Structure formats: C-alpha cells, structure tokens
Amino acid sequence: IRRIGILTSGGDAPGMNAAIRAVVLAAHQYSIECIGFFHGYNGLINQEYRLLDNSSVKDIIHKGGTILKSARCPEMLSETGVKQAVNSLIKLQIDALIVIGGDGSFNGMLAIEQHWQGQLIGLPGTIDNDLDGTDFTIGFSTAINTAIEAIDKIRDTADAFDRVFVVELMGRHSGHIAFNVGIACGAEQIISFENFNANDANKKVNEIVSDIKHHQSQDHQSYLIVLAENLWPNGAQSLSEQLKLQYSIDCGTCILGHIQRGGSPVAKDRLLATKLGVAAIEAVLVGKTSIMLGELKTEIEEVTLNDAVQHTKIVAENLVVAHENILALAAQNKR
Ligand code: ATP
C-alpha cells in the first residue's frame, strides 16, 4: 500500500478531525502517503485535494467540524458522477479510500465499489448514531452533551415562568438523540420514533394536555417536551401553536438545530475516533475492503458496509422502559 485517500462526507460530526488525525498519523507510521479530498465526494470528483502529513493534523484533535470540509454531493447519485470519482481514484493511484460519514456516505462507497478494485473502509461519523455495527458513532456523545447543556438552560427559564417548552432535537429519522437527551434532562415527555406515530398526533395532544394540566395543578412546575425532528406533523412549532391556541397553554418552542453539530468533541468521541482511525489503517494493511469499523462492547469490530446501513439498531429498550417507569413513578408521587 503506497497511497490512501480520505474524505469526510454528509453532516459533519464532532470528532471527525480526531479521526482524520489518527488515520494520517497511523498511515505515516507505515510510510503510506495520505491524500485528503475536500468537500466530501465533490473533492474526489473535482480532484480538489492536498497531501496530508503529520504537521497538517497538528492541533486538530480538539476541534469540531472537519479540516477536510464536508458536503452533500448529488453527482454521486448518478453513474456518471460515480465513474468520475472512480477515475480520480485511478488517476491519483489511490490504493484505499477511507470515508468518514453516515449511511448516505457509505452508500456512496457501495456505488464506487461497483467500478473500482481498490479498498474501501468506512468510519462511522454522524451525530445521529444510526449506523449498525457500532454501539456509538463518532460525534453522537458530543451532540447529546451539547443538547443536554442547552436544555438545562431552557429548564431554568421554563421553571421561572412555570412554562411548557417544546424542544426539537436532531436525529434525522432515528430517536437515539431524542431519547438519550430526553432522559438525561428529565423531560416530562419524549416524543420519538420509538413511541409515536404521526397518525396519532391528535390523541397524543389530548394526552399531553391532560398530563400538563395534572402536572401544573399539583406543583406548578415547568414541563419539557423533547421532540425528535422530522416526526410531528409540521414540526415543533405546530405542536406549540396548537397547545397555545387551542388549549391556552403558555408554551415556548426551541429548535436546537445545528448547535448540536458543533463544538469541541468530548473525550468519548476523541477516543473512539482515534481508535477507529488507527484500526482503519491496520485494516487496509491486511487487505480488508468494503467494511465499516466500529466499537461494540469496547471491542473494535468490523461489519460489511451493507450491514452497516441496515438501520436495525434501535434505541435500547431499557431506555424506553426507563423513561416510562420514571414517568409512572413521578405520577404516583404526585397523587
Ligand atoms: P448524516 O446522516 O450524518 O448527514 P450521511 O453520510 O448519511 O451523513 P447524506 O447526505 O445522506 O449524509 O450522504 C452524503 C453523501 O453521500 C451524499 O451527498 C452523496 O454524495 C453520497 N450518497 C448518498 N446516498 C448515495 C447513494 N445511494 N449512492 C451514491 N452516493 C450516495
């Protein structure tokens, strides 16, 4: 192995820089040249790249975002785009490509696999934690800590006014962020893919209203509703408006949005990224291809790219049950 390529693709996630750093430092150990492509697959298609040496990854382990930039690249959805990407890999004599990203980015690798003989290694880099074959993705731990910190602040102001707040969290189509954050913040309601169907929105509103009324009649406290994005019909604002207009409930809305993507990665993400980055080079050296590396029960494991994107990893049932039990206990105590 003489030369590898690396890129970050899809939504950026804190810890991507730590992963780039680990890959580059490990590659250097084995005298492998490392080419960094910019702006996701766009850099590959347009041959926008630079050589990465040890000095280019100095002082980046603690930084959010990605020094290679990230982007969506619609061209990859056509065979012409994929072939352009493959031409670049061939022209630049890349032996292996390492992609740090989410399931979409891995589908990009699966498309490249159809036309290229080189090795393809994926590292799970997404705040959504929605990849199979790893307990956690790089960026998830930082994102939930960021959201928890923000919601603790919302709790303070909600408490001061005995207010209801709907807080919408990221997660695309999975509830890992909403459930973990909701429990850690002691949210009175968690509305997520695991426990809610959009067809039942009206039923859910009635349930929430009676719970809020009961809650407020007891001890006049704040009430937080944590909501996963892409779930409630017309979003968080619409739920808030309904509570306000139809039921005269003083309700604020906060859409945390992209704040959840930024910031310095927490220790857990830096360590995961570093371990997986080194493992990626080790996998390249022994000829592995079309795999994602992840960590399961503290062991580094590999899974095929196909298996990684199956979306079978669900929010741990014990979390869902824990949330329900906590609510039941809280209701008992109030009575
Ligand atoms: P995140 O979920 O964190 O945003 P992601 O990697 O899933 O990350 P996407 O926007 O879904 O983000 O995908 C990133 C890029 O991967 C796309 O812009 C596109 O270039 C490529 N890609 C996605 N799906 C495919 C596909 N089916 N075939 C080829 N390339 C794809």
Automatic annotation (TrEMBL):
The protein's required cofactors: Mg(2+)
Known catalytic reactions: beta-D-fructose 6-phosphate + ATP = beta-D-fructose 1,6-bisphosphate + ADP + H(+)
Any GO CC annotation of this UniProt entry: 6-phosphofructokinase complex
NCBIfam families reported in the protein's UniProt record: PRK03202.1
Pathway in which this enzyme or protein is active: Carbohydrate degradation; glycolysis; D-glyceraldehyde 3-phosphate and glycerone phosphate from D-glucose: step 3/4
Enzyme Commission number(s) of this protein: 2.7.1.11
Organism for this UniProt entry: Thalassotalea algicola
Subcellular compartments: Cytoplasm
Start and end residues of each Phosphofructokinase domain: 3-284
Family to which the UniProt record says this protein belongs: Belongs to the phosphofructokinase type A (PFKA) family.
One GO biological process term: fructose 6-phosphate metabolic process
Keywords carried by this UniProt record: ATP-binding, Cytoplasm, Glycolysis, Kinase, Magnesium, Metal-binding, Nucleotide-binding, Transferase
InterPro entries (UniProt xref): ATP_PFK, ATP_PFK_prok-type, Phosphofructokinase_dom, PKF_sf
Name assigned to this protein: 6-phosphofructokinase
GO molecular-function term, one example from the UniProt record: fructose-6-phosphate binding
